[in-house]
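thought: user wants a sequence for this fold. calling inverse folding tool.
action: design(structure=
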C-alpha cells in the first residue's frame, strides 16, 4: 500500500492511465475503490468502469476533490484546459503527478497557481506487462517524500529512475518513444527470417524473445553492450557479416538521429 494514499484520481484515463490503474490493482497497491478515473467522453467513462471496475466520471473537479494524489493522464495538448478546470479545487496538501510529455513542472505549477507538490514522470507502454521504464523528477514544491510516493506507483509497473528535469525530453524520446523503434526493428528482423524461409509466427517469436534476452543481458550483467556484441561475434563467423550490413545501412546513425529528432519534438508538444 502507498503511504498516506487512500484515494487516487486519474484525470484522463486513456491508454496510459488504464495501464497504470490495472497494474496498481493487480499489484494490490490500491483497491479499485481507492481509485477514481475521468475521461472526456461518456463512452470512455463507461468503458473504464466496465474494464477496470473503478468508479469513473466526466467531472474532473469532483474526482480531484476526493483524492490525495492526482495523476494527470491527458495528452499534453489538453493539459492547459484541464489545469484551468481543476485549479479552483486543488489543495496544497495534494500530490500532483503528471505523465504528460513536454509539460514541465513549472508549467503545471504556474497553471495551478497553488503550491501543490508536482512530480513529472515519463512512463512507457511496456508498463502494461510489468516491464515499464519510468523516469521521475520533482517540481519546486515537491520533497523526497512526494517523489517516493510517486515512485511507488510506477515501481508497480516496472523500473523507475529519478532524473533531473532537464533530461525529461530526452527520456521521452528514448524510453517512452523507444518501444516503437524496437517494434520496427523487431518486425524487420522477423521479415529477415521470413525471407530466409522461417514461418512468420516462428520468426516473430524468435525476434521478440531475442530482443528480450539481449535487453536482460545488458540489465542483469551490467556489461557494456559493445562487449556483449563482441561475445556473439566470432572471427570469420556469420554475425560479423550481419553487422557489416547494419553498418552499411547506417543503423547506428539512424537510431541516434531518431532519438535526437524525437527529443527536439518533445520540447514542442506544449506551449509554455
Ligand atoms: N502512450 C504512450 O506511449 C505514452 C508514454 C508516456 C507518456 N505518455 C503520456 O500519457 C498521456 C496520455 O497518453 P495516452 O497515450 O494514454 O493518450 P490517450 O489514450 O488519448 O488518453 C488520454 C485520455 O485523456 C482523456 N481526456 C482528454 N481530455 C480530457 C478532459 N478535458 N478531461 C478528462 N479527460 C480528458 C481522454 O478521454 P476520452 O477517451 O474520453 O477522449 C483519454 O481517455 C500523454 O500526456 C502522453 O504524453 C504516453
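)
observation: tool returned 272 residues.
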Amino acid at each position: 500500500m502507498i503511504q498516506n494514499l487512500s484515494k487516487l484520481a486519474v484525470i484522463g484515463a486513456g491508454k496510459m492511465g488504464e495501464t497504470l490503474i490495472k497494474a496498481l490493482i493487480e499489484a494490490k497497491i490500491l483497491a479499485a475503490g481507492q481509485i477514481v478515473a475521468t475521461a472526456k467522453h461518456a463512452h470512455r467513462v463507461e468503458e473504464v468502469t466496465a474494464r477496470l471496475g473503478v468508479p469513473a466520471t466526466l467531472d474532473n473537479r469532483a474526482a480531484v476533490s476526493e483524492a490525495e494524489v492526482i495523476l494527470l493522464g491527458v495528452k499534453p495538448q489538453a493539459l492547459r484546459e484541464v489545469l484551468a478546470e481543476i485549479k479552483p479545487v486543488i489543495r496544497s496538501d495534494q500530490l500532483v503527478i503528471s505523465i504528460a510529455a513536454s509539460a514541465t513542472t513549472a508549467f503545471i505549477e504556474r497553471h495551478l497557481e497553488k503550491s501543490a507538490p508536482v512530480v513529472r514522470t515519463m512512463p512507457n507502454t511496456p508498463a502494461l506487462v510489468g516491464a515499464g521504464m519510468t523516469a521521475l523528477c520533482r517540481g519546486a514544491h515537491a520533497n523526497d517524500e512526494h517523489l517516493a510516493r510517486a515512485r511507488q506507483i510506477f515501481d508497480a509497473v516496472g523500473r523507475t529512475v529519478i532524473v533531473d528535469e532537464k533530461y525529461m525530453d530526452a527520456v521521452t524520446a528514448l524510453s517512452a518513444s523507444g518501444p516503437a523503434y524496437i517494434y520496427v526493428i523487431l518486425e524487420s528482423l522477423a521479415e529477415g527470417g521470413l525471407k530466409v524461409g522461417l514461418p512468420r509466427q516462428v520468426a516473430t517469436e524468435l525476434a521478440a524473445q531475442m530482443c528480450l534476452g539481449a535487453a536482460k543481458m545488458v540489465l542483469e550483467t551490467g556489461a557494456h553492450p559493445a562487449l556483449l556484441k563482441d561475445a556473439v561475434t566470432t572471427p570469420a563467423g556469420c554475425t560479423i557479416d550481419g553487422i557489416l550490413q547494419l553498418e552499411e545501412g547506417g543503423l547506428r546513425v539512424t537510431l541516434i538521429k531518431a532519438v535526437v529528432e524525437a527529443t527536439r519534438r518533445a520540447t514542442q508538444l506544449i506551449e509554455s
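thought: summarizing for user.
answer: Here is the designed sequence. The chain has two domains: 8-171, 178-266.
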